[in-house]
């Protein structure tokens, strides 16, 4: 079953985020707290959204996303920040079901695309995404400002 996340899901969403970070060899980078997620997902002005994959009433996967915008299309899109399914539950269709739900939301709301990033070494995920019809956008390189570099730029502008 795929459903929208509720405030009661926040502890499980954080668990899944931490599990994803561990899988991506980046657990040490996770700073998010339950309070951070609760505010972002369910505060007065939510900026992110989440869907939960359930098995026997227990969350086993999630998709966390936010709206993007394409100036070329003139429409919003969905940017999928995280998609994760517990390793023991993979192969049961939960990842696909989460992506189907996001595609349904995008189609229903007139959004122009669903996009995301995947680590270059994550061959199982790449194969999974390509089997669904997704194609890599290899002519673009993602850049990021964070930490000290972000602070330095902000304060020296």
From TrEMBL:
MF-aspect GO terms: acyltransferase activity
Family matches, as InterPro entries: Acyl_CoA_acyltransferase, Diverse_Substrate_AcTransf, GNAT_dom
Residue stretches making up the N-acetyltransferase domain: 1-155
EC number: 2.3.-.-
Enzyme class: transferase
Coiled-coil region(s): 13-40
PANTHER family tied to this protein: DIAMINE N-ACETYLTRANSFERASE, GH14572P-RELATED
A matching Pfam family: Acetyltransf_1
Signal sequence, start to end: none
Keyword annotations from UniProtKB, A to Z: Acyltransferase, Coiled coil, Transferase
Protein name per its UniProtKB record: GNAT family N-acetyltransferase
Domain of life (superkingdom): Bacteria
Species name: Actinomadura adrarensis
């Amino acid at each position: 079953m795929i459903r929208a996340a509720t405030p009661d899901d926040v502890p499980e969403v954080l668990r899944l985020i931490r599990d994803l970070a561990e899988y991506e060899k980046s657990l040490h980078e996770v700073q998010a707290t339950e309070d951070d997620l609760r505010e972002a997902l369910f505060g007065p002005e939510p900026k992110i959204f989440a869907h939960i994959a359930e098995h026997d009433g227990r969350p086993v996967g999630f998709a966390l996303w936010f709206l993007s915008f394409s100036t070329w299309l003139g429409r919003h899109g969905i940017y999928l920040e995280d998609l994760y399914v517990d390793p023991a539950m993979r192969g049961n269709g939960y990842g696909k079901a989460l992506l189907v739900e996001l595609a349904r939301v995008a189609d229903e709301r007139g959004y122009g695309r669903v996009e995301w990033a995947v680590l270059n070494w994550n061959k199982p995920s790449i194969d999974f995404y390509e089997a669904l019809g997704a194609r890599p956008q290899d002519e673009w390189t993602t850049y990021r400002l964070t930490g000290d570099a972000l602070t330095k730029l902000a304060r020296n502008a």
